[in-house]
Amino acid sequence: MPMVTLEKIAHLAEECKFDSLGPARCPTVVDVDAEKLSILGEGTRHDVCASTFSPRETPLPGICHAFTKDGRCVSLFKTLYTNHCTHQCSYCTNAANCSRKARAFSYTPKELARITLSLYRSNYIEGLFLSSGAGRDETMVMEKMVETARLLRQKFAFSGYIHLKVLPGASQAHIQEAVELADRVSINLEAASASRMFEICTTKNYESDILQRQRYIRDMLSETSDTGKTVLPAGQTTQLVVGAAGESDEEIFRRVLYEYKEIGVKRAYYSAFSPQRGTSFENRKAQPLWREHRLYQMDWLYRIYHFQPGEIRHAFNENGFLANADPKMAIAREFVDEPLDPNTAAFRELLRVPGIGPRSAERIVTYRKRQPIAAKAELAAMGVRIKSASPFLKINGWRDTTLEMWQA
Amino acid sequence: MKIPENFLYYLSRHEDCNELLLARAWNLGAEELEVSLHPEVARIKKMVYAVMGEAHRMKAFMRLQPLGTRVLYGFFKPRHKIGEHICDHFARRNAWIIVVLGNGSESWISLCREGRIWRDHGRGLNESLERLKSALHCSEDGCEDVSNMEGLWQVYYDSQYCPERKNPEAFRRHMPRRDQDSAGLRLLQNKKNATLEDFLSD
């Protein structure tokens, strides 16, 4: 690649043929109402998906551009298109029956596209996450959301990440277009079943508004997969509000299994319920954040570690809840009958030992091809969490007996 | 992060790397680096991760400001020799826009045009920007940044915080001060109180 003078570079840049891009080439003055930006931004605070990794032809890496004081990353411009909504979700501050509603705001597609592009050019974000209230007419709001994505991709040649929410009332045509423009689309399940949905929101039909639309997306993707074209590289995802309706973790697990097997979602997100002032659920108890964390661990065991549902069920107590402890430990106590020798155990067996993840299991398998593992310190250097793992391991017949595995 | 096949590139960019170390690393494979417990290999691995980590965080924390319509620039003072690497990254992302990153003593300039990168390595950031202004016939008025992206961003950033999830420890872990300084983040946030000289000095 050539090294040239700065003056030559200036000259080369001046030859840009795409004058039609005009002022959009660099961040421009975006005259936006700060209150609107803030309120529509706040509307997505509880949407926890921040992933920006997209396995396109040239993969888009996941980059977190900032972290909030709660330690969560900000990698996307996450916003609502409008906070006006006719649904009556009992946990939501934008619900039609919320008594402390913020002023209603709405973007225009052009305005939103320009803000996104400017933030992207200045490297504040990796892309756009666009959700919305239902507005007066859900189809119209969905049309505007799709138009925003279309403007970004087609007019502004935006190559960043786009995640579009599909509204419950969205038409098939709009969903199709969303799928073609975005890296990822999602429909929030919110509840674990139709009856739980009815407890938290009476205006949404679980089957026709949510599951049916998820199936549309699944079918669109399977149709295009034959053409060899990369469509919706980051796939379809979903999110549940945890604990708003009193559902158990096992109910959530059953639903998520269905989502992975039948709908083919890439992953599920869990957002612990926290009561918001003015909503019908304002006096309900907030769910502890650890519950969310344990659900994610359960999810990983299924999705990344490929544990069988039958194994994972052992992590639930008799009421169907996970304890505030690593579910993998509970499962290991049930299934790992005797200590394993890391020199001979199969990859699958290693993965079942608490403290050993896919990466360290892989390293163990590679390492032992060259030389046997002789000490725990070697395992530690390979990334194994010795404190959790040692009750389940023996090296060359030797086993750490100072800790009973049941007490670990 | 897995050790990539081209790990020698990252190793060579480390501030403490020398020819001798590179020569010794030459015969190592990525897989060996991944699993070996030999002290020297472990040290090489640590160095590779240090460079990859800084490069990753700089791609995240750098903020670019417009100078007219053809230039984006930002303060950048990395510990490792990744100036060109990061500058190219932003140039690829912003085709046809000149990207200038730098500090008081050196600067990197990249332009991506039709998939091809053109580069220069200059002295201080200020000097490079002045030269670009005159080469692009940029008047003072035309170069003034009136976009207020930082103000806009701050409003949005504040809106994303959930007080019930407050976790300052996680915040500090993810945003090390050292990297915020390398990317000039804190300078940018204190922009109102800072003079241009603060931006451009070492």
Question: Runs of chain B with pLDDT <50, length 5+?
Answer: none
Mean pLDDT of chain B: 88
Euclidean distance between termini CA atoms of chain B: 32 Å
By DSSP, the count of extended strands of chain B is 5
User: Which CATH-level-2 architecture of the domain at 33-238 in chain A?
Assistant: Alpha-Beta Barrel
Q: Give the number of DSSP strands of chain A.
A: 10
What is the domain tally of chain B?
2
Order of helices and strands of chain A: HHEEEHEHEHEHHEHEHHHHHHHEE
Could you explain the architecture of this structure?
The complex is a heterodimer of chains A (408) and B (202). With 408 residues, chain A is an alpha/beta fold. Among the domains of chain A are: 33-238, TIM Barrel; 337-399. Chain A has 15 helices and ten strands. In chain A, the strands form three sheets. Chain A has a six-stranded parallel β-sheet with strand order 3-4-5-6-7-8. In chain A, strands 1-2 form a two-stranded antiparallel ribbon. Chain A is globular, with a radius of gyration of 25 Å. Chain A starts with 5 loop residues before the first helix and ends in a 9-residue tail after the last strand. Mean pLDDT of chain A is 90; it is low at 19-24 and 401-408. With 202 residues, chain B is of the alpha+beta class. Chain B has two domains: 7-55, no CATH class; 62-200, Diaminopimelate Epimerase, Chain A, domain 1 (Roll). In chain B, 50% of the residues lie in helices and 13% in strands. Chain B is globular. The relative contact order of chain B is 0.12. Chains A and B meet through helix 1, helix 2, strand 1, strand 2 and strand 3 of A and helix 3, helix 4, strand 2, strand 4 and strand 5 of B.
Task: Give a brief rundown of this model.
With 408 residues, chain A is α/β, with parallel strands linked by helices.
List its salient traits.
heterodimer, A: 408 residues, alpha/beta, TIM Barrel, two-stranded antiparallel ribbon, 15 helices, disordered C terminus, B: 202 residues, alpha+beta
